[in-house]
Amino acid sequence: MQFPKIIQGGMGVGVSNWSLANAVSKLGQLGVVSGTALDQLFVRRLADGDQGGHMRRGLDAFPFPDMAKRIWEEYFVPSGKPSQAPYPVAPMHQRRDLKKVIELCIVSNFVEVFLAREGHKNPVGINFLEKVQLPHLPSIYGAMLAGVGYVLMGAGIPLHIPGVLDAFAAQHPSEYKLSVIGAAQGQDTQMTFDPADYAEGPLPMLHRPKFLAIVSSNTLATTMLRRASGRVDGLIIETPTAGGHNAPPRGKLQLNAAGEPIYGERDRVDIAELRRLGVPFWLAGGYGNPSMLREALEQGAAGVQVGTAFAFTQESGMSADLKKSLLAQAVAGTGEVFTDPLASPTGFPFKVALIPGTYSDPEVAAARKRVCDLGYLREPYAAEEGKIGYRCSAEPVENYLAKGGKIEDTVGRKCLCNALMSNIGYAQIRKDMTMEPPLVTVGDDLNSVAQFLAPGRTSYSAADVVESLLSLSVNFEVAEQELAATA
Predict the structure, then answer these.
(1) How many CB atoms lie within 10 A of CB 226?
(2) pLDDT, tens digit, for every residue of 195-241?
(3) What is residue 234's three-state secondary structure?
(4) pLDDT for 333-342, tens place per residue?
(5) Under DSSP, is residue 191 helix (H, G, I), strand (E, B) or coil?
(6) Counting beta carbons within 10 angstroms of the beta carbon of residue 479, is it exposed (0 to 12), middle (13 to 18) or buried (19 or more)?
(7) Lowest CB count within 10 Å: 214, 220, 310, 354, which one?
(8) Phi, psi at residue 354, to the nearest 5°?
């Protein structure tokens, strides 16, 4: 089977949007959309008047027209909302979501994948975070309705996802056990989804997408292959230099002089051991240049996953002013990335680009009033009388403590949900007319993206990245074929 040499990373909220994934997949590589918070992003696109008519085009292709009509009528604002008006906010997810919340999840994931697949016949992927469990089932179903070719998942150990894909492909209901802190033995924490409850007519036949688990160690790679609920089609091995969430260092947490986690020998991946597992694997984290792709192929990898280089392309969803600022830093070689051990409510280290005036600026962070109104990173916990509550260490401190949280867990936490929306130009406007600040996440190789800028250019495209990355691997392929012919 032919696998892509390049997987475009599923970055953040809306950075890896349908436009970027479409451009990469058209070039014969694997374009990937980010599945995180697609429902809220969809609402904000409609509130801005659906510029370009893309959401409408996706809705017109949706197989359940009555559901699509309900979503359109509730959230579409002709000509767009007033610039100083806040965006509407859909209800936060719970274990037993309202029907309208589930429908929004299905539709938004369908539309994103549908648009990414337009105009070509190559596969498209979608990336989810294991830790954002509450929307998993309807999100995956919506993506499969649109014919997604790959599902990628990391930020946890997604053992149950392959079985979900199998169930939906067989037109069966699916379930997913929610991780609940302090849950009593035997407590019901199961989430269920039956496609028949939402279909308008016979259930559509669905193709089972390939599943790629994003892991950070040989141990996790082996665990996924041995214990997953269904077939794992490949592995993406992400090193601590990659953007977004990083796996914590193994063993006791130690920080360097700058306050970043220290990764050691135990965190290194044994490539020879990976090869013995017998499944395709891709290497990620600092592989965004031609020599690194060739090196990965020589080590037996199917290819590489590249995020940071694609984050700054013309097609990505990152706002133009942030792209311009960070590209200028990259050209000057002055870009700085800090692996923040505290910022993310998940407790995972989170890579942050240091940009004055953004949430990475201590003064900006101190001035922001704590609000939790999107809630994707809330942790479910066992509340009184067998109920499940939800809390986030970045929400107002008094609220978090009232839910049994510890004060020390609130120190340094940042609202990633709102910040990542700001990164792509959908910053929420508060009652005092302040706007939610952005917090950009990129890999340690930020400054290396300058390699994709042609002389005199201030921007570059997804095609520029793909062409550059493949420039050395073509020669490697020829040599490999010649060796096989003489064997």
Answers:
(1) 10
(2) 999 999 999 999 999 999 999 999 999 999 999 999 999 999 998 88
(3) strand
(4) 999 999 999 9
(5) strand
(6) exposed
(7) 354
(8) -85, 105
CA distance 279 to 301: 10
Return the structure tokens found at 214. Answer: 């994003």
**How far is residue 280's CA from residue 282's CA, in Å, rounded to a whole number?**
7
Which CATH number fits the domain 6-318+445-486, given the four candidates 3.40.1000, 1.10.287, 3.30.1490, 3.20.20? 3.20.20
Among residues 210, 252, 257, the alpha carbon closest in space to that of 235 is found at: 210
Residue in this structure with the two tokens 């407590």, named with its chain if needed: 187
For the stretch 14-46, pLDDT in tens is: 999 999 999 999 999 999 999 999 999 999 999
Averaged pLDDT, 155-178: 95
- d(CA 202, CA 103) in angstroms, rounded, equals 17
Contact yes or no for 22/164 (Cβ under 8 A): no
Task: Please say whether the beta carbons of 400 and 391 come within 8 A.
Answer: yes
Sheet-wide strand order for 303-306:
6-8, 303-306, 281-284, 234-238, 210-215, 150-154, 124-129, 31-34
Q: Is residue 371 within 8 Å of residue 415, measured between CB atoms?
A: yes
Instruction: Tell me how far apart the alpha carbons of residues 274 and 284 are, in angstroms, rounded to a whole number.
Output: 14
